[in-house]
Amino acid sequence: MKLTLEKQAFILKLLDTNQGVLSIAELKILLRPKNQQQFYRDIHVLERSRVLQPFCRGVYVSQQPNLKIVSQRIQPNSYLSLGSALSQHLIIGSVPSKTVYAIKVGKSRKYQSSFGEIIHLGITPDLFFGFEMKDGICVANKEKAFLDTLYYYQKGQKYSFNIFSDFNLKLLDRSLLAKYLRKYRNPKFVSFAKGLMSAD
User: Fold this and answer.
1) pLDDT tier at 9 (50, 70, 90 boundaries)?
2) pTM for the whole thing?
3) Cβ neighbours, 10 Å, residue 25
């Protein structure tokens, strides 16, 4: 059965509702193909019509996806951090809008496309804390985003901002930072973080 214009319009509307992202599992439910071959024919039609485009394996997006939502859909057990969270909390100024940083347990992964890139940095389970759900996205609180930024800086991560001058340290809760720092076992990192915290 040919993929109708009405069905394409419905997919477009749903993409808009989902802020520009649908999983392959959702598309199978929506398209109700007779078989796998029919499903991929329908997907090809949707791609050719520019209704949706593949972002990474199992994830399709519209022409203007919300990369923060895409990040959460790719890895539900992750939280936004580094510049993506710091700018949201006004700890730093703006950051490149087409790059999203998130933290997850396990190995780091990078997803690149014409829409932008999503960088998932790996962390150990004992340091996976300090975040909350906001509008369907897990986001580090400002203190954890600050510490994550320093943590990955020491591991060689590059940023579009200067960690020694661009933080608005007055907005950080020093008692919460001290509590969080007790969870870090690397004395070199703890000393580095305390030094930056006292620079204000």
Assistant:
1) confident
2) 0.89
3) 9
